[in-house]
Structure formats: C-alpha cells, structure tokens
Amino acid sequence: MLESEYQKRRRPPREARPAPSEPDTFQYAIRPAVEEDLPAILQLYRHYVRNSAVTFDEKPPTLRKFRSQFTHNSKLGFPFLVAESPSGDLLGYARTQLFRDKSAFRHTAESTIYLGPASTGRGLGRALLGALIDACREAGMKEMIAVIADSGAEASLRLHKSLGFTESGRMGKVGFKFGRWIGIVMMQKTLR
Ligand SMILES: CC(C)(COP(=O)(O)OP(=O)(O)OC[C@H]1O[C@@H](n2cnc3c(N)ncnc32)[C@H](O)[C@@H]1OP(=O)(O)O)[C@@H](O)C(=O)NCCC(=O)NCCS
User: Fold this and answer.
1) Tell me, what's the pLDDT at 13?
2) pTM summary value
3) What is the 12 CA–ligand 1 centroid distance (Å)?
4) Who has greater pLDDT, 149 or 21?
5) Is 182 within 8 Å of 176 (Cβ atoms)?
6) Per-residue pLDDT tens over the stretch 122-154
7) Given its phi and psi angles, is residue 83 left (phi above 0), alpha (psi -120 to 50 degrees) or beta?
8) Domain boundaries along the sequence of the chain
9) Residue 48 belongs to what H/E stretch?
C-alpha cells in the first residue's frame, strides 16, 4: 500500500468524527442584587438544599427570612452580586455576610456562590467570585472566608484555590445530611 493511501484511510468515518466545535455563546452580565431578585435566587438555592450536600441547610429558608437577611447584610455593607443572561434570567449569585454575628468580625466577609446547574463549568463561577472579591475590597473588607463541604464540592474548592484562597482549617464530620457525615474546609483570602 502506498503511504499516501494509508494516510487517507486513517481518517475516521464521518459518524466517528468529533462534531465541529461551536463558538461558546454563553453571555452574562454581573450586577449588584436587588430585592426583586430574591424569589429567583431562593428558587436556585432551593435546588441545592434539596439535592446536594454542598449546603448544610436541610430546609430552604422562607422568602421572608431570606429578605430580612438580605436587608440586614445590605445595611452592614456586605456585597451581593447576581449574574443574569441577556434576557434577564438569573444564572447565579454570589453573596457575603458577617462571618460570625458579633460586631468585631465586621471586616471579615463569609462568601457563598451558587450557579444554576446549566451555568456551571463555563467560567461564570470564576468571573462572579472575582467580581465579588473586587466588591469586597471596595467595601473595605479585610478577609474573605468560604466554608466549603469537604466532599462533593470539588468545583468550589478548585475555584476558591484558583482565585487565591488558601486553606485555613478543617473540621471533620460536623454536618449530617442525607444519612452521612460531612466535614468543612475553611478557605481564606486576605484582601488588604
Ligand atoms: C462551584 C461553582 C460556583 C464553580 O463555578 P463554575 O462556573 O462551575 O466554575 P468555573 O468554570 O469558573 O471553573 C473554576 C475552576 O473550577 C474547576 N472546576 C469546574 N468544575 C469542576 C468540577 N466539577 N470538578 C472539579 N473542578 C472543577 C475549573 O477547572 C476551574 O479551575 P481552574 O481555575 O484551576 O482552571 C459552580 O460549579 C456551582 O455553583 N456549583 C454548585 C453549587 C456549589 O457547589 N456552590 C459552592 C458552595 S460552597
């Protein structure tokens, strides 16, 4: 067999060839959350409360409680951002709150981030958490803390590491959800 014929036959049949890659059309805008966003945010969060152990909540908060937390944290100056599609649908959110409910912790923000399942793994987490870090810096925060489940939250651990958070502590088996024990990893980033 000639070398040129051999090369031709090595090309896989059409059905076995990978589909031509399409340009990624994932578009979003990041902006501060407003009270009108809360029902959609709570709906997104409910999904993770009911179906995952990345949150230690076992029952989603009521909209009323969610709203009062939002008002409280906004008054304290803790940033809360949403990402939305060009048509205005919520794709994800990232928010901060007082790390512990004692006033001397006021320069330390505990952050959380949740994306809708269809919006994960496409770089939005990185963009949204990056924007939250900038917003915390502008708000004069000194430290950011993320408390992350020690199993099942690999994407979150990777994301936080990648944006400069370092592990500052671990506690094993402090949560019990869906019939199993779960620990936490504390990730911390110094802002100034
Ligand atoms: C965690 C979450 C915010 C990450 O956002 P994302 O948009 O999916 O992640 P990105 O595409 O921006 O990728 C960020 C990093 O995580 C990595 N990553 C993404 N998905 C991953 C996965 N399933 N497993 C391991 N690493 C993953 C990426 O490779 C990237 O790493 P790099 O910066 O070193 O290249 C998002 O997946 C999510 O909302 N998950 C469900 C809810 C959740 O776990 N929230 C956090 C609670 S603490």
Assistant:
1) 55
2) 0.90
3) 34
4) 149
5) yes
6) 999 999 999 999 999 999 999 999 999 999 999
7) beta
8) 27-190
9) helix 38-51
Amino acid symbol at 19: A
Identity of the residue numbered 53:
A
Name the residue with higher pLDDT: 33 or 3.
33
How far, in Å, is the centroid of ligand 1 from the Cα of 147? 15
Lookup result for tokens 């205005």: 88
Cα 43 to Cα 76, 114, 125: the distances in Å are 24, 11, 18
Q: Is the dihedral of CA 52, 117, 41, 33 positive or negative?
A: positive
pLDDT at 24: 67
Amino acid at site 74: S
Helices 124-138, 154-162: crossing angle, 10 deg rounding: 50
Please give the pLDDT value at position 25: 87
Q: Tell me the HSE value of 192 on the side-chain side, using a 13 A CA sphere.
A: 13
CATH fold group of domain 27-190 = Aminopeptidase (3.40.630)
Shortest-distance Cα residue to atom 42 of ligand 1: 114
On average, the pLDDT of the chain sits at 92
CA 141 – ligand 1 centroid, Å = 24
DSSP-based three-state secondary structure for 85: coil
